[in-house]
Amino acid sequence: MFVTFLKFAENRAAASIFMAAHNDWIAQGFVDGVFLCVGSIQPAVGGAILAHGESRAEHDARIALDPFVVECVVTAETFEIDPKRTVAALDFLKAAQ
Questions:
Q1: In sequence order, what DSSP letters do the residues of the chain get, joined into one string?
Q2: Which residue of 12, 22, 79, 93 is most buried, as measured by CB atoms within 10 A?
Q3: pTM, full prediction
């Protein structure tokens, strides 16, 4: 499982220009069954993605294709989590390893 933080970077002012492409990229992550949750980091410092079901290399490659990353609107930092305990609804995260 991965948690990726997308923090605004030097080209933050261009976010509105690339927002539609960024939202399409997010939608594809859900269609692919990889993204579990995507949301904003408050107060307005960027976003976060909870993902699973792909290798670290695949995840890093996916993140690198985010138009916000490509255009330096955000910088990405990913942490890999090895789930040991979950609520029942998230047990599939432990089995995915």
A1: -EEEEEEE-TTGGGHHHHHHHHHHHHHHHHHTT-EEEEEEETTTTEEEEEE-SS-HHHHHHHHHT-HHHHTTSEEEEEEE-------GGGHHHHHT-
A2: 22
A3: 0.91
